[in-house]
Amino acid sequence: MQIDRNITLLALSSVIVLALILILGTSLTHSRRVDLRENRFLQTIEKYKQMGLLENDLMNDRTLRYRLSLATLDYSEKKTFAVVKSELKKQQALLLQEPDNVERLLSLKEYVTALASRMASNSVFNGRVTVNETPQKNHLNILFLSSDPDNLLTGFEDISCAFTGTSNVVLCNSKTINRTLEDFDRVSENFSTAIATLDSDGSLTINSLANGAILKQLLKQNFLTWLLGHEIGHVILHGNKVNSGSMPLHFDFVYDDKEREADAFVVHAVRADNSLQAAFPVILLEFIEQRYHKIYQEQYGSSAMVFPARNSPVEQISITATSYSMPLLVRAMSLMDQSIHENSKALNQATYSVIDGKLAYVGSYKFTDYYEFLKTRVHIVEKPSIQSSRVALCFLIFGMVIALALLAYSQLHRKGHGEYK
Ligand SMILES: [Zn+2]
């Protein structure tokens, strides 16, 4: 009896020791593998840098004229135009005292650096952001590449940006991004954005012709806020450890829980920044309208778009959404829902900016009630993803196996009874 117990104890402890060795061994080889992967990754980036593949032309192009909004104005309390004007004048006097605040046009690199620094400021990467430089340890590193000959990232040619899961590096394909930015140059209508400049005589001017160029620029920078914020969200929320060895996390491929979390991060990061939180939802509504009208035209033809349908579309558009093909409109609407949920006055804000030497304000002339109406004009057809189809198939096969087993059992049972008879 005593010997039996000793043997059992011995067997049990050896099993535990073996299991511990196994766990420790696997984690050590795993971390060595991760280190090796990281070294190889950084060496490749260094090689790319020497080959001139870091995209510096696009990044340093000052003709892009990105502007950071300077301050915010809440006009939700049913302020009259005269009140807004007098507030603007006060603001103008204040702004002009600070030379730094007068028209700051940034290159893409300066804009991305400022944007990423703001969005990462409440994380461990506060003050630790690099853009198109040799990646640094414990930093958030964003790299714009023109090509990826050594295949650092699967499917690089088709992606805009992705979190690689290594060295906190976000890789962006400057060609794809450039194409996306050029798409905004084709925007020909302004659906909801109010842009007005304050003249020296105190009058507010809406220059529609000049505003077209500003609107395109605002749409571009809002999209970059979303795109980069999404990737920064992946780095902060999902990190190297979670993602090492698995697929890189993209902006524009499979849309699953991690993607939803990264999009939600954008809303939180924007909300935490005074001028971003006033600028982002306003231009997001414009983006939603641009997308909405494009689909409306495709489904009903341009004749249906004549005024007043422009402001109150009669027909409902229908769009299909799956996790493998999630339309940007659906994602943008989900960002808007979250923005309004966190701040019911998200659309009742304006930002100050300096446009062509004049103080300007950018806001929306459509508000939450309009957005809620627009939502009723969108019919989202949700189709099960391939993943859930796979799960369904597994269940089906499992069910069939059980059914067959039951059938076989009942057959055997009947046969058994027959023999007894
Ligand atoms: Zn993503």
Task: Please supply descriptive tags for the structure shown above.
five-stranded antiparallel beta sheet; five-stranded mixed beta sheet; 421 residues; 14 strands; binds zinc ion
Describe the structure in brief.
The chain has helices at 2-51, 81-97, 108-119, 174-185, 208-243, 257-271, 274-300, 328-342, 368-376, 386-420; strands spanning 66-67, 71-74, 105-106, 129-131, 140-145, 161-163, 169-173, 193-198, 204-205, 249-250, 317-321, 349-355, 358-364, 378-382. The protein has ten helices and 14 strands.
Walk me through the structure.
- There is one protein chain.
- By secondary structure, this protein is α+β, with helices and mostly antiparallel strands.
- The chain folds into two domains: 52-383, no CATH class; 391-421.
- It is built from ten helices and 14 strands.
- It has helices at residues 2-51, 81-97, 108-119, 174-185, 208-243, 257-271, 274-300, 328-342, 368-376, 386-420, and strands at 66-67, 71-74, 105-106, 129-131, 140-145, 161-163, 169-173, 193-198, 204-205, 249-250, 317-321, 349-355, 358-364, 378-382.
- The strands form four sheets. A five-stranded antiparallel beta sheet has the order 2-12-13-8-9, with helices on both faces. A five-stranded mixed beta sheet has the order 4-5-7-6-10. It has a two-stranded antiparallel sheet with strand order 1-3.
- Strand 8 and strand 9 form a beta hairpin.
- Bound molecules: zinc ion.
Topology diagram in text:
Blueprint: H1 2-51, E1 66-67, E2 71-74, H2 81-97, E3 105-106, H3 108-119, E4 129-131, E5 140-145, E6 161-163, E7 169-173, H4 174-185, E8 193-198, E9 204-205, H5 208-243, E10 249-250, H6 257-271, H7 274-300, E11 317-321, H8 328-342, E12 349-355, E13 358-364, H9 368-376, E14 378-382, H10 386-420
Bound molecules: zinc ion (ZN).
The site of zinc ion has 7 residues, from helix 5, strand 10 and helix 6.
